[in-house]
Amino acid sequence: MALPSHVTIRRAVPEDAEALGHLHLDVWDDAYTGLMPQSVLDRRRADASGRIERWREILTSSDEPTYLAEAAEEGLVGFAGSGPTRDNDVDIELELWALYVRAAYYGTGVGYALFETVVGDRACCLWVLAGNERAIAFYERQGFQLDGTEDEHDEGLHVRMVRAGV
Q: What tens digit of pLDDT does each residue of 85-99 get?
């Protein structure tokens, strides 16, 4: 699926921290309302300034880039990042840390373009919220499979998906 012509993918810079912090809150609401306790989403929203500062730190100091999808009129509509896997029980070096797109851009190719930018055809693992069938189906289309590993968090049960290089 081709990226919409009015959307570009670019590497995030520290000056994007405020817009990215707000986008992160919005896309969590889009993706997780009804899938996790509302109190988790409300706490994140109440700490918007903290989220912006965390993004400023990440964009200033991380060796791993974050990529943004930016629409000509609307501004930021998605983001993604990957880096070394944080799991020591899987023989895969790359982990997809984040891939989020505004609900208005679901099915437009923006998520796929971000995915291709940060993962491409490499072997990879990722964690997804159990019950997030839309995301699980997207990752299955990219060759990922659930591996049976689970991890409980405040926001709910996370399940791991893995993919060998393609």
A: 999 899 999 999 999
| Contact (CB, 8 A) for 68 and 83 | no
Q: What is the largest CA-CA distance in the chain?
A: 44
Verdict on whether the full-model pTM lies above 0.90: yes
Give me the DSSP letters along the chain: -PPPTTEEEEE--GGGHHHHHHHHHHHHHHHHBTTB-HHHHHHHHHTHHHHHHHHHHHHHH-SS-EEEEEETTTEEEEEEEEEE-S-SSSS--EEEEEEEE-GGGTTTTHHHHHHHHHTTTS-EEEEEETT-HHHHHHHHHTT-EEEEEEEEETTEEEEEEEE---
Who's near 143: CB < 8 A, 6+ residues apart? 163, 164, 166
Q: Could you report the per-residue pLDDT of 5-53, keeping only the tens digit for each?
A: 899 999 999 999 999 999 999 999 999 999 999 999 999 999 999 999 9
What are the chain's domains? 7-163 (3.40.630.30)
